[in-house]
Amino acid sequence: MAYIKATVSYTIKNGSGVSFKAPCDCSTVDGIKVYFPSEGGVPTSKVFIFTDAHGNNLTGIGHLFRKGAIVKVLLNLDEGRAYIQNADTNQYLEQRFTEVQSAIGGRAPASHGNHVPATETANKARFLRNDNTWQTVTPANIGAATPAEVNEAIEKAIGAAIGGSY
Prior knowledge:
Blueprint: E1 3-7, E2 17-21, E3 31-37, E4 43-51, E5 70-76, E6 81-84, H1 87-104, E7 126-128, E8 134-136, H2 139-142, H3 147-162
Parallel strand pairs: 1-3, 4-6
Antiparallel strand pairs: 2-5, 3-4, 5-6, 7-8
């Protein structure tokens, strides 16, 4: 696991914030190792995994930190998570997004229309067929047996079971 080292002069508690300057345009960073004095004054350290707001680990995200960027995180001691909180990183992401959009060069436009004949209000009695047409759900349209075919099959089965016709 690769991590960035940071040293603070205060005791870390749940919700403590830590700011640090990104040491490089890192390519794979999973978290931050924070060195801090414990409540008894003894130096200690703990590794925190970078995490998004949904609790997902953000491994290998060092590319989000350009060299010199000020990164701010909130620490969760119990779970060992560092929640990224800074606008500087978000601006970098926007810059990277713009670079990707430029590289695509219009090959995949952001809006490229609907892929259905015309959108409709949700309706459980309608479905979109593979020939791109809306159809009403009927036994014939979905490949199911009609009520008459079901009845006929039941009568044949009963007749076979009792040794005659029903």
